[in-house]
Design a protein that fits this description.
alpha/beta; Rossmann fold; 4 domains; 4-stranded antiparallel beta sheet; 17 strands; about 40% helix; disordered N terminus; binds guanosine-5'-triphosphate; binds magnesium ion; magnesium; Putative GTP-binding protein 6; ribosome binding
């Protein structure tokens, strides 16, 4: 049994008062995380003794007909203390300066030809994104930037000898630099050390910059643990680097006081233990997610995952669709790191749960995506996907390809992929925006100006009805029987038209095929 929070208690007291005036319909509440339904008692629809069913959409808690269940699960009790998570989350990879301040020089490698050349983007656009990433971090500023051609961005020697000298000269001549950001997925430990030795400042790659951003935005235990896990490969590289350096000076391979382990081996073992601890905590969270998912399924609320490239407007769109004031869209890359669920209503009053997800980024190293796989796993189990695109962005096509590639790697079921709705957002920023052809599953909106939302809600409803196999039916019920209360319990009642003369009602209902089968068995 869970203790109710003060806020939830006050909602219940409000509800109790609402009973006095209750109607047998969904109450339109201003607490979007609570799903409230007043169920008429069996047999007598005029009675005021309604049963109250409240489901908290934010957590695993389910309050049903006076009983509050769920909430404190075994996983909660066994799960790590906050202080333990904080300890694991403490910065392990040094950021190079105190107070996290950096004056950054950005180098963008440019592959001009060959199979490694990127065709959907340009070095300038990639550089612009790198500037965006740096500016996302408080106290980090871009001092200067440079595009430099290369044939082998993934090799240890990224730049040819001549270009490397030009770059080194430029970095040395620019005053006040505290870090260099080389915009490649991952630098090899060797290159990182070579660059740092040569330039005398901290060197970052895309992986380490994105991790810094994640660090700043992490709020929940899960996000913090996932980031700590994603940091392990960086710690391993650093360890290798340090010991390669010590070896050169003849000190790395010494055994420690009869333990039979060298210092390097001890450090490696500690890192392994750290990784195992984080993985097992994340596994517990994964199980908890499974539990949450099965509870969501049992509550029969369809789940709609909203995904897309970072900063495309996912959070803004969900806020517009649900009016959930908890949501805080920000003009920042990776503002959302934690999956949150928000209830919204479709035109027929059907409640759906919108899942806000972490944004995608091109060339994000696999290890980083893997660390967030538990979070992304939710996407697979949705009833519908909405792919939001910032259609005003110069790289919108490239972003779409990236998102679709990540989805491919996540092995999303074909049926979910084929029913996915593509939403073109930020259309207000384009003067000559042409809506896509009607035969494609594309809809245009401006989440910020709340344009195009009705059409989107209707499309969501249509797809949900298809994907969940639900039926929208008009059913005639006898008010003196249990039929209406049964429908309230087992399905979504959208509308009730009472015929006072013959004591019947025409009920519009959204109902699963299985539930309708049970209804017919019971009542016809
Ligand atoms: N002009 C305009 N701006 C928008 C629109 N939708 C979102 N934005 C802005 O785009 C920025 C990012 O919005 P978010 O909703 O936080 O984007 P997100 O996709 O959730 O971003 P991450 O969580 O960081 O991946 C914010 O400054 C929003 O105000 C739109 O329709 N028009
Ligand atoms: Mg967001």
């Amino acid at each position: 049994m869970t203790t109710l929070s003060a806020a939830t208690r006050s909602w219940f007291s409000l509800l109790r008062r609402a009973h006095a005036y209750s109607c047998h319909r969904f109450l339109p509440l201003r607490a979007p995380h609570l799903h409230v339904q007043l169920l008429p008692p069996a047999g007598n629809t005029r009675s005021r003794a309604f049963t109250c069913s409240v489901r908290s959409l934010k957590s695993s808690d389910v309050f049903d007909g006076g009983r509050w269940t769920g909430g404190a699960t075994e996983e909660d009790e066994e799960f790590m203390e906050d202080s333990e998570v904080e300890e694991l989350f403490q910065q392990q990879v040094p950021s190079g300066t105190t107070g996290w301040q950096h004056r950054v020089f950005i180098v963008q490698p440019d592959v001009k030809w060959g199979h490694r050349k990127q065709h959907l983007t340009t070095a300038e656009l990639m550089l612009a994104e790198a500037v965006g990433l740096v500016n996302t971090l408080d106290n980090w500023t871009v001092v200067d930037k440079m595009v430099l051609s290369t044939k082998t961005p993934e090799k240890k020697k990224i730049f040819g000898k001549g270009n490397f000298l030009v770059l080194t000269e430029k970095i040395r001549q620019t005053s006040g630099i505290t870090a260099v950001f080389v915009n490649v997925d991952r630098l090899s430990p060797l290159s990182e050390r070579e660059f740092e030795d040569m330039w005398g400042v901290k060197v970052f790659d895309r992986y380490s910059v994105v991790l810094q951003i994640f660090r700043c935005n992490a709020r929940t235990k899960e996000a913090k643990l996932q980031i700590s896990l994603a940091e392990i490969p960086l710690l391993r590289s650093r360890l290798k680097n340090e010991f390669a350096h010590m070896d050169q000076q003849g000190g790395g391979a010494r055994y420690i006081g009869g333990s039979g382990e060298t210092l390097f081996e001890v450090q490696q073992r500690l890192l392994k233990e750290r990784e195992t601890k984080i993985r097992s905590a994340l596994e517990k969270l994964r199980k908890k997610r499974l539990l949450l998912r099965s509870q969501r399924k049992r509550s029969e609320f369809p789940v709609v995952s909203v995904l897309g490239y970072t900063n495309c407007g996912k959070t803004t769109l969900i806020k517009a669709l649900t009016s959930d004031s908890v949501l805080q869209p920000r003009n920042q890359l990776f503002a959302t790191l934690d999956v949150t669920v928000h209830a919204g209503q479709l035109p027929s009053h059907m409640t759906v749960l919108y899942v806000d997800t972490i944004g995608f980024l091109s060339q994000l190293p696999h290890q980083l995506i893997d660390s967030f796989s538990a979070t992304l796993e939710d996407i697979k189990h949705s009833d519908l996907l909405i792919h939001v695109r910032d259609i005003s962005h110069p790289e919108t096509e490239n972003q779409k390809v990236n998102v679709l590639n990540v989805l491919k790697n996540l092995e999303i079921p074909d049926s979910l992929m084929s029913s996915m709705i593509e939403v073109h957002n930020k259309t207000d920023l384009l003067d000559n925006y042409q809506s896509p052809q009607v035969d494609t599953v594309c809809l245009s909106v401006s989440a910020l100006l709340q344009r195009g939302l009705d059409a989107l809600k209707s499309a969501v409803e249509e797809k949900i009805v298809q994907s969940t196999g639900k039926l929208v039916l008009d059913v005639r019920v006898e008010l003196s029987s249990d039929q209406l209360s049964w429908l309230y319990r087992e399905a979504t009642v959208q509308d009730v038209k009472v015929n006072a003369e013959d004591g019947s009602a025409l009920v519009q209902v959204i109902i699963s095929t299985a539930a309708y089968g049970r209804y017919r068995k019971l009542f016809t």
